[in-house]
Design a protein that fits this description.
The protein is an alpha+beta fold. The protein is built from two helices and 14 strands, in the order H-H-E-E-E-E-E-E-E-E-E-E-E-E-E-E. The strands form three sheets. Strands 1, 6, 7, 8, 11 and 12 form a six-stranded mixed sheet that branches. A four-stranded antiparallel sheet has the order 2-3-4-5, with no helix packed on it. The chain has a four-stranded antiparallel sheet with strand order 10-9-13-14, with no helix packed on it.
Length: 263
């Protein structure tokens, strides 16, 4: 229902009549000029306002577009949410990239080189080590129990604890150096004895063993030779009480028996 428009203003009542020349004088002091502009503006202003008011009351406003407003709001919220999600994804990706950059990457250790196994060569069994001691001509060797032994080019020399010297030559008729053999000398008593002799007829002598006592105990002798191994040398050994020697045997370095002298 449209409101009732306000009543239009009636014609303005005429003002008091001008009286005399003094009424025609304006504020500026100019005589005979009246200000018609102010009077016209004042008279027209109520007419314009009244016309606008009548036009406004004649317009009926349409319904408010609530559905469109809601759709526009939802669209704006969706765009805002999508923008925030994109920012979050970018931030997370930056954090992951930073974490990956901070974690050191260690290269895998190289695999050990594979070396083909070489077949093991089968070596023949070595011969027994050389147990012969090389001495200079005339070099004195302490042989134990107070005995001293030395060699010269002509044979074996030894001295007993009393200072008595003895000699056994390699060139007399009792020594045949053409074939392997041994000789034997012994000094001592019931408390023990010193045994010595020559070995000869071979350049491959390995050891000399003494067989002692009724049980056949074995005693290994010490071997001496001159430089160059002239094909002969000296052996010696000591035994304790009841150690009578029953046999002297010469072996080569491979362990083969070359000669035996039975006592």
């Amino acid at each position: 229902m449209n409101p009732t428009p306000p009543p239009e203003p009636g014609p303005s009542a005429p003002g008091p009549a001008a009286t005399g020349p003094a009424d025609a004088t304006d504020a500026t002091g100019v005589t005979g000029v009246t200000d018609a502009t102010d009077a016209t503006d004042t008279a027209d202003a109520p007419d314009v306002r009244a016309a606008f008011a009548r036009a406004a009351f004649d317009v009926t406003p349409g319904p408010v577009p609530l559905a469109a407003v809601r759709r526009a709001g939802r669209a704006r919220r969706r765009r805002r949410t999508a923008a925030l999600s994109a920012v979050s994804v970018i931030g997370a990706a930056a954090v992951v990239a930073a974490a990956v950059a901070l974690v050191p990457v260690r290269p895998s250790p190289p695999e050990p080189a594979r070396v083909a196994a070489r077949p093991t060569a089968v070596r023949p069994s070595p011969t027994a080590p050389d147990r012969i001691r090389t001495v200079r001509p005339g070099e004195r060797v302490e042989a134990g129990r107070g005995f001293t032994v030395w060699l010269t080019a002509d044979g074996k020399h030894w001295r007993d604890p009393d200072g008595l010297e003895n000699f056994r030559g390699v060139s007399d008729g009792n020594i045949d150096r053409a074939a392997p053999g041994v000789s034997y000398q012994s000094e001592g008593g019931p408390e023990g004895a010193f045994h010595s002799g020559l070995y000869y007829g071979t350049t491959a002598a390995g050891r000399v063993e003494l067989t002692t006592g009724p049980e056949g105990r074995t005693v290994l002798a010490t071997l001496l030779a001159l430089p160059g191994r002239p094909g002969w040398g000296v052996w010696y050994a000591s035994t304790g009480p009841g150690g009578g020697v029953t046999a002297v045997t010469l072996y080569d370095r491979a362990g083969a028996r070359l000669a035996t002298l039975e006592n």
